[in-house]
# Entry
Amino acid sequence: MTTPPYGGPTPPGQPNQYPPGQPNQYPPGQPGGGFQPAGQIQPGYNPYGQGPSGQGNFRYALPGDPVGFTTRVGASLIDGFVQGIPAGIGLIVTIAMHTSDAAGAPLSLGFLGSFVIWFLNRVIQQGRTGQSLGKKITGSRVISIETGERIGFGANLGREICAYFFNYLCFINLLWPLWDEKQQTWHDKVVNDIVVST
# Structure
């Protein structure tokens, strides 16, 4: 039985076939030309391929280059400045009210406001989108090394808590990206994330 013209019905019991020289015909082993036998891998395929940065050891091509130390510091400074505004205002008001019995209240409210901003920006926003305000301005974001996707609220909360303790217990955590192959800090390594450019 002959193969029907392109677009015609397929004879019973026959797989979808295309006559030689017709559209959508692929030589064996080429994209779209069927499955490869089990255990064989196309030449040049690397499941741990390198990303745009040229660095290896990733399961996929990174969606952006790992960001450098200065970009990370810039993002942290922006976040820290915004977070410190309520505490700064509270301190100024407390100094102005130093003779009052309620002088400590503005400072306490300021620290509470700073905590709320930290939680909304660094935990919720960054967990939901991969970007805090500082990372958005500097063009960077946090992704999972395993999937390339956002790390989510829970992992991001753990990341920020680890960052807090690592930064205050050992300042070297902040400098670790300077010599790390993937430009990670310790809290990045704990959560298995990486900060890349957008």
